[in-house]
Amino acid sequence: MTMNPAKYRRNPTPNLPDRQWPNNELTQAPIWVSVDLRDGNQALANPMNVEQKLKLWDELVAIGFKTIEIGFPSASQPEFEFTRRLIEENRIPEDVTVQVLVQAREHLIERTYEALKGVKQAVIHVYNTTSIVQRENVFEKSKDEIKAMAVQGAIWVQEYAEKAKQEGSNSEWIFQYSPESFSQTETDYAVEVCQAVMDVWQPTPDNKCILNLPATVESNSPNRFADQVEYFIRHLPNRESAIISIHTHNDRGCAVAAAELSLLAGADRIEGTLLGNGERTGNMDIVTLAMNLYSEGIDPELDFTNPEKWMDVVEEVTKIQTHPRHPWVGDVVYTAYSGSHQDAIRKCLLKQEDSKPWNVAYLPIDPKDIGRDYEAIIRVNSQSGKAGSAFILEQEYGLNMPKWVQMDFAGTAQKLAEEQGGVVSHVDLFESFKDYYKFGQFNGRIQSYQVNRDKDVETITLQFDGETWSGEGKGTLSALCDAYQKKTGKSIDVVDYAEHAVQMENMSNGKDAFAVAYVLLQTNEGKKVGVATAQDTVSAMIQATLKGLSA
């Protein structure tokens, strides 16, 4: 074994035996911040150009983000130009605030304010690293020196905002500070640095600053990160004057969980990206967290009802394809192949009432809420059972098959799936169904029939293939069985029968309603099933019985 776990150590986190977050409940959505155009963009092999960023910007606004980090305008000319395009072309809605990132370096801060000239409102997000590994191995600076860098950055941000005001700017500035790699920073020290920054900015409850706590590298389990956040908030003086923001990454695969628990720990605001694009394993996926809240009855205040539209844009500009099993919006996340799953979904959907809370097995939300159709929920393959075929034929063609018909047809559907070696289309499945039950083969054989009722006795006379059959019974089916027995000398009993109407448009180009009949017969040769369609119930019943007898 070449792996050596002894070379690693657990990241230290604060001791918080009286933690409160496990007992808290979420009741509302956080303040959302999209960082797709900045953090997501810088992680791309081929960063977006200005036109691509504008296209994604429009989608982010349409989804409902009210704060969008648009980039690092002091880092490159395209970033600067994109910022200017948004402002000069009046692309920023009144209720949307742009956010920009800048290091705690004076010339970069100056360039940032230059890029934002004329903006109505903006968040100036300044940061410097505070983690042990960065202090000791990268910057080789002491705690006091690192804190001094943060304070100086805060001073410059404030001074250039004042300078802009003196030059006639009416822009509203909101200050944000991040102790980069908060998750790898001693939490007491993170509090100390952030408090020093607040001492510069002097925020108030009516004019708050933003303190953003990044898991720049996810190094703790979600529960320990929540401990860090709760400890930070409980020990931060003047907490009521700060908005606590969270920015998690996905190195351990737990970015969403860490963000969700951080909200329980008292955070107000979440930064992330659509579908989790970001450096290394990615940023926190806002779609997943928002839909998690939605599935518990909390309004996420973001509109993901048309995922195909915005996903196409995200995939186009990032050149990253969405995994088909991506939570909530992957192509097959509402699809069941397992026969037992299919059966459970079908039964629950039949019982689901619009006025009642959603309660369907294997479907945590109604797929229709985000524009998905039920036809995609159940797909038939070699792992499917009778319920899968029944669901597809019901959804696509209106065939409400009794269980005994489902069981009779299951083997044929299974064989079709095995022969095709993948998912069976509803068209192929229906063609197989029609072929198995001989649709159309009896429609022309019956020349005429007549049914008469005299008190409790019904008589039937059939003319077909040059023959005449006659029988009587308490109903049409029993009269038909009697006619068969008289003609052939063979016994026959009707074990079960079902019928319903469907719209012709489900099976052809018309729109008229017609009848489908299903009959289960007990004959000398064993049980047989017949299925038929006709313009009226009696004709469908007769044809289904004759098909069953000929099976």
Molecular structure report:
- The protein has 551 residues and is an alpha/beta fold.
- It contains 17 helices and 14 strands.
- The chain has an 8-stranded parallel beta barrel, surrounded by 8 helices. Strands 9-10-11 form a 3-stranded antiparallel beta sheet.
- A hairpin with a 2-residue loop joins strand 13 (513-523) and strand 14 (526-534).
Task: Describe the structure concisely for a colleague.
With 551 residues, the protein is of the alpha/beta class.
Features:
single chain; 551 residues; alpha/beta; eight-stranded parallel barrel; three-stranded antiparallel beta sheet; 17 helices; 14 strands
What proportion of the residues is helical, as a percent range? 25-40%
The total of beta strands comes to: 14
Radius of gyration: 34 Å
First and last CA, distance: 63 Å
Low-confidence stretches: none
Provide the spatial order of strands within the biggest beta sheet.
Answer: 1-2-3-4-5-6-7-8
Q: In one word, what is the shape? A: elongated
Summing up helix and strand content along with how strands pair, one would put the structural category as alpha/beta
Summarize the topology.
Elements: E1 31-34, H1 36-42, H2 50-63, E2 67-71, H3 77-88, E3 97-103, H4 106-115, E4 121-129, H5 132-139, H6 143-166, E5 172-180, H7 187-201, E6 209-215, H8 222-235, E7 242-248, H9 255-264, E8 269-272, H10 286-294, H11 307-318, H12 339-351, H13 386-397, H14 403-420, H15 426-436, E9 446-454, E10 457-464, E11 467-473, H16 476-488, E12 492-503, E13 513-523, E14 526-534, H17 537-550
Parallel strand pairs: 1-2, 1-8, 2-3, 3-4, 4-5, 5-6, 6-7, 7-8
Antiparallel strand pairs: 9-10, 10-11, 12-13, 13-14
Helix pairs in contact: 2-3, 2-11, 4-6, 6-7, 7-8, 8-9, 12-13, 13-14, 14-15
